[in-house]
């Protein structure tokens, strides 16, 4: 409620001159009247000034803790995007780390010549390299050359490759590419990408596998493991394999392309799995922006490791001499 203005005192009655005593006495002297009260406008002005002063004092008295909390409540600046130079350095460091972990990285398909590697790579679609390696010994015993395979009975060929899945479509591709090699390339696998991709069932991925591992021509093998890991590491955001290939190729010297592919695929199969990566056992964890997506406990992560990293056989029946794991078992073998 507002403050009530004091009542104005009544004026003292005037004493007639004739009745005024000659010498005034203190007891008879009337009290001096108080000054007139300030106007309503002046009173309101004083009240407003006092309120402003009080508010200013209260603000000045705000505790230091409250000020700190107010500053802390301000939204932090978003992290600065990684520069191109920083990306290249990080990507190449990851490659060096993987080279130390997998010095024995290699194509995990058994083959003795470019034709066998080409056929095995076509068969590896939608299945494991292990299953292909268990299937090709009988296949190559029956059809050792492009001319032999081109003349194969389709049903007999289908039965031999049935364990790899999608055997009818794959048999059609093998018959077509074998005929193409026989008729257009004198029975030899060509050593150029533009020629390889004209063969039935042969795309850029298959062509790069053959060029890199049978002819020594550098190439990137963008399979599901490769694409998944380079996106997880923020090397690219592309989904299309050809665009992925182009962006990753720009990060590394050409001489590294083939071995980079092997290292990434090795790591994807052994440690950095699609559903549950073994983050706690990953040698490149400090460099990985996706660390924590998988199991971070070292003991639990170690149990997720596969193939030689987990103490189990690899995918090849005839692995390279420097492979530290044990060979895979033939098709139908016990265990």
Question: Please, could you describe this protein's structure?
Answer:
It is a single chain. With 335 residues, the protein is mainly alpha-helical. It is built from 14 helices and no strands. The chain has helices at 40-60, 64-72, 84-101, 114-123, 129-142, 146-150, 154-161, 167-184, 193-196, 204-214, 224-232, 241-249, 257-270, 298-302.
Features:
disordered N terminus, 335 residues, 14 helices, single chain, 46% helix, globular, 0% strand, mainly alpha
How many helices in DSSP terms? 14
Molecular shape: globular
The residue fraction in helices comes out at: 40-55%
Q: Beta fraction of the residues?
A: under 5%
- Tell me the series of helices and strands, N- to C-terminal: HHHHHHHHHHHHHH
Please, what is the average pLDDT?
85
First-last Cα distance:
93 Å
Number of strands: 0
Question: Which runs of at least 5 residues are low in confidence (pLDDT < 50)?
Answer: 1-39, 58-63
Structural class: mainly alpha
Q: Give a quick account of the main beta sheet: strands, pairing sense, barrel closure.
A: none
Radius of gyration: 44 Å
Topology:
Elements: H1 40-60, H2 64-72, H3 84-101, H4 114-123, H5 129-142, H6 146-150, H7 154-161, H8 167-184, H9 193-196, H10 204-214, H11 224-232, H12 241-249, H13 257-270, H14 298-302
Helix pairs in contact: 4-10, 7-8, 11-13
Question: Could you write a compact summary of the structure shown?
Answer:
With 335 residues, the protein is mainly alpha-helical. It is 46% helix and 0% strand.
